[in-house]
Specification:
Length: about 250
């Protein structure tokens, strides 16, 4: 089994096409297939902030649900969009407003199609993926070793939001504990959620959210090769969105 774990796309549809090309995939209609049978895995946050969230939904739905040639785990932005589609009173900020604006520009028929696609994709997705053949776990914001195997509320919060402290910095960003520094398991934990300028490998964890929507790059991590493939972003660089660790 060979996989390509793709970092947070956030509606950057052009960069996603470019990454698939660079990874050697062939486009067939609305889908991508690798001649060697590689499986792409989306690490969540496929929508919001970027220019083509609905196009990304269509591709991911086609690959994951229709053709079953890819896998997907949800991120916190996916969770928020799902709650919006449920009719919950969700505040339209932090990028959700861009996806909703795209959605509301569609006809009622097209809206129903997109809503059904995304809700099906989300409802069929595991909270996180365990891949024993490659000794790997894919979770949007990562997962602590003691939480592996669980799916309770505490685990849901962790894999969607990271190891949050409940505190905020001067800019209003949530302060997250650096759980990766304390991970000493022998399984790969591949995640995104926290934008970093370069893929961050700590112990056996790999953060591949290289902030495409903030102007840096879209990144994939390949297993079993343990190699990184990135394409440059076409979005403007917003330096303050990136996290730096000691």
């Amino acid at each position: 089994m060979k996989i390509d774990v793709i970092g947070d796309v956030h509606g950057c549809i052009e960069e996603l096409h470019n990454l698939f090309d660079k990874l050697g995939y062939k486009q067939i209609h609305q889908s991508y297939i690798h001649p060697d049978g590689r499986i792409p895995i989306f690490v969540g946050d496929i929508t919001d902030r970027g220019p083509g969230s609905l196009s990304v939904i269509k591709i991911v739905y086609e690959m994951v649900v229709i053709h079953k040639k890819a896998k997907y785990v949800p991120g916190n932005h996916c969770n928020k969009l799902y709650r919006f589609f449920l009719g919950n009173n969700v505040i339209l900020r932090y990028g959700l407003e861009t996806t909703v604006a795209e959605y509301e520009s569609l006809s009622k028929k097209e809206q129903k199609e997109i809503k059904d696609m995304f809700m099906t994709l989300y409802e069929q997705a595991p909270l996180y993926l365990q891949i024993p053949e490659l000794n790997a776990i894919i979770a949007h914001a990562g997962i602590r070793e003691d939480l592996i195997g669980r799916t309770d509320k505490k685990v849901q919060t962790f894999v969607l939001y990271g190891d949050i402290s409940g505190q905020f910095d001067a800019n209003g960003k949530p302060i997250r504990r650096d759980w990766a520094k304390h991970y000493h398991g022998n399984q790969w934990i591949i995640y995104g959620h926290t934008p970093v300028k370069e893929p961050r490998m700590v112990n056996k964890t790999m953060n591949i959210d290289t902030g495409c929507v903030f102007g840096n790059a879209l990144t994939a991590f390949r297993l079993p090769e343990e190699t990184i493939v990135s394409v440059p972003s076409k979005q403007p660089l917003i330096e303050e969105k990136f996290s730096y660790f000691n």
